[in-house]
């Protein structure tokens, strides 16, 4: 998102949203698996339960056996809507805030790395505040049994009826904390890049090294923030009718972490992380690959629309 880009904030938002929706569609089964593993505690007593997954492979096999292929795409519509709205909001606010900041600086003054990260965090926080209701609905649809699963609007209505409008903003606090993930990724990337360049005695990075270093940085950032990712999902989750009898509602992210640790130990904080990392790395690569192409097409489209409008005025 260079300052000299020809695209407006709206154009960046369209390209970013298109790339994110494509990436989610390709990796959605991993998202389903990650979410279900995060909310279902795994113990020796329930290891044979078809709703408890021992690994990503085990999850795929059990979902296909009990729900068929549609089970791997449960809640896809709301997931795409949530991704579209969140990424549109993020790319719009990022470009809007960044452009406003740059325009207020003296000519020729480059924006600092710290400010880039702060702008990204601010844009991420704004995006979360406006779009988290769709994420809550998606989590519910992904984790409810087939017999209890409803469509997007019915699920949203049920949440409001049971918990009030604030129920649609469950998990907002950990979501706001998680906007630091890009900053951690960037910091890790910079440090790893220094080590790699020194180790290979190079002055610049090849495309292959950029991808590998970026993937490793993303993995490390995910490891650092994953317990909070898990806590956010558990706050948004609603137990099935069978589990609701014995489940005590969580009071916050710290309560989630404490109770999961008491029941499963430290490994409970990282249940489903393999699927999360796979999804994060693949999505990141697909997002930027598709986004770059969409930005080119969006520039051409906007130019054609502007030319058509100019001819009509004449």
TrEMBL record:
Give start and end residues of every Solcar repeat.
7-100, 111-195, 205-297
List the membrane topology term(s).
Answer: Multi-pass membrane protein
| TM annotation in the entry | 12-33, 72-94, 114-137, 208-229
| Record-linked InterPro entries | MCP_dom_sf, MCP_transmembrane, Mito/Peroxisomal_Carrier
A single Gene Ontology CC annotation of this entry is: membrane
Write out the annotated subcellular location: Membrane
Which Gene Ontology molecular function entries are recorded, alphabetically?
ADP transmembrane transporter activity
> Where in this chain does the entry annotate a coiled-coil region?
none
* Keywords assigned: Membrane, Repeat, Transmembrane, Transmembrane helix, Transport
One Pfam family of this protein, by short name? Mito_carr
- Principal subcellular localisation of the protein: membrane
Record-linked PANTHER family: MITOCHONDRIAL THIAMINE PYROPHOSPHATE CARRIER 1-RELATED, PEROXISOMAL MEMBRANE PROTEIN PMP34-RELATED
Q: Which family does it belong to?
A: Belongs to the mitochondrial carrier (TC 2.A.29) family.
Name-wise, this protein is ADP/ATP carrier protein
User: From which source organism is this entry?
Assistant: Linnemannia gamsii
The protein's gene is named ANT1_3
